[in-house]
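Hey team,

Filing this mostly as a record. A colleague (T.K.) asked me to run one chain through the structure pipeline before their review meeting, and I want the input and output archived in the tracker in case anyone asks later how it was produced. No errors, nothing strange. Just documentation.

Input sequence:
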Amino acid sequence: MDQVKKRNFFIITVVSVIVIVLGFTAFYFMHQAKEKELEMEQMTQMMNFEKEQVQKEYANLNQEFEGYTSNIKNDSLVKLLQDQKSKVHQLLEELRITKATNAKRIAELRKELATVRQVMIQYVNQIDSLNSVNKVLKTENVEVHRKFKAATETVKELSKEKENLNQVVTRASILEVTNFRMTALNSSGKKTGWFSQTATLQFNYTITKNITSSPGEKTLYIRITRPDDDVLTKGNTFRFENKNITYSSMKKFEYSGEELSDVIYWKVGEILPKGTYKVDFFVDGYRIGSFNFVFEK
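Output structure:
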């Protein structure tokens, strides 16, 4: 009987120990499982956070590309930036569908992001360089435009001064008639005071000295205008102020720049009325003298 009790006590003791060991073992594995579950949850949160960060970086990079491609005019550089921008879109889309637990691919995508960013930095440096060059060129262009405008104004001023000078020189070179005197001659070439007996009008005059006028052979024209404003003419014309006008008499003479006294005649072919007559002298296309004389008898 004692042996039975001892054996039962032993069995109960062994079973109790086994139960306790199994309980501790179960508790241990359950605890380990919970810790692993907690670690996995934390790992998942960290990977989600990592994925979100990489997505933000890609999104920011994409916005930077938008800003740069809209502000540059270089077609080749725009094409390169557009290519990189397309690559960013593709990587961003791949990242969106990649599971957060795929740490390896997320790390690869982050590495590719760094490569794209480095390429973009090179392009940005080129853009900044081009912008700097453009600013210099723009500044130089403004300066060139300013100098060109100033030079144009100077040329205009010089042209105006030249034109004024030419006008002054032209006016200075115009000859002038002085010492005008009309003498009425009869058919015998004698002086007469009766207009009814006048057969020839003799005009004495002096062309003044003018060293600025070009020397050489010149032509003198005179127009005799009657009191009724008709011109005494044989129908001959000469060029004056871009039109042909009639003249009464003409004479060629050699001019050296020195004072020249001369005479010119008009043969009367009609009865001359009483009144005030006018004689205009022309040389080189300019009116160089205008005088009046009167027939009273």
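Quick notes for T.K.: The chain has three helices and ten strands. The first strand starts at residue 177 and ends at 185.
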